[in-house]
């Protein structure tokens, strides 16, 4: 990222959503998107004048139809995919209601923490999985 192109790095709000059974919600990225076909933690781009928590509330309603009441910072990851540079601002989401559904037609799954290693994620997510398993 250079000062001449401050918008080049995409600020993404990412939610590690945990239910009462300690399972974590995964969604499959649509094939046509960047890193398509891989599993992700739901989330999306933070808009101007929006906090990460606000972006998560909006994105998790849009993407998986959950009503989030609070989220808490977990970690930040800067990653360069070559074709795209991302700043992932990852939050824990433990306070929510509703039934998770792929509101945009994507596959969604509640997964046991120990099973996370069985899924294919974008490269930047490795550190997130490590952190979840250390909890
Ligand atoms: N949501 C999410 N994005 C991730 C994860 N890991 C990872 O590298 N990313 C990257 C992939 C994308 O380059 C970027 C998310 O951007 P996106 O374009 O899908 O954001 P969005 O959901 O707001 O999509 P859009 O509707 O604005 O197009 O972050 C993850 O676990 N969850
Ligand atoms: Mg998204």
TrEMBL record:
UniProt-listed PROSITE patterns: NUDIX, NUDIX_BOX
Reaction equations catalysed: 8-oxo-dGTP + H2O = 8-oxo-dGMP + diphosphate + H(+); 8-oxo-GTP + H2O = 8-oxo-GMP + diphosphate + H(+)
Keywords linked to the UniProt accession: DNA damage, DNA repair, DNA replication, Hydrolase, Magnesium, Metal-binding, Mutator protein
Record flagged with keyword Transmembrane helix: no
CDD domains per the UniProt record, alphabetical: NUDIX_MutT_NudA_like (cd03425)
UniProt-listed Pfam families: NUDIX_4 (PF14815)
SUPFAM superfamilies, sorted: Nudix
InterPro entries per record: Mutator_MutT (IPR003561), MutT-like (IPR047127), MutY_C (IPR029119), Nudix_hydrolase (IPR020476), NUDIX_hydrolase-like_dom_sf (IPR015797), NUDIX_hydrolase_CS (IPR020084), NUDIX_hydrolase_dom (IPR000086)
Stated name of the protein: 8-oxo-dGTP diphosphatase
């Amino acid at each position: 990222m250079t000062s001449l192109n401050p918008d080049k790095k995409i600020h993404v709000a990412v939610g590690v959503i945990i239910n009462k059974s300690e399972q974590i919600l995964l969604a499959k990225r649509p094939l046509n998107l960047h890193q398509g076909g891989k599993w992700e933690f739901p989330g999306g781009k933070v808009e101007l004048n929006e906090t990460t928590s606000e972006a998560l509330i909006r994105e998790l309603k849009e993407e998986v139809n959950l009503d989030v009441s609070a989220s808490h910072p977990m970690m930040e990851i800067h990653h360069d995919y070559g074709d795209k540079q991302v700043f992932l601002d990852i939050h824990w989401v433990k306070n929510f209601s509703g039934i998770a559904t792929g509101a945009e037609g994507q596959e969604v799954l509640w997964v046991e923490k120990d099973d996370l290693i069985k899924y294919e994620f974008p490269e930047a997510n490795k550190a997130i999985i490590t952190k979840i398993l250390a909890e």
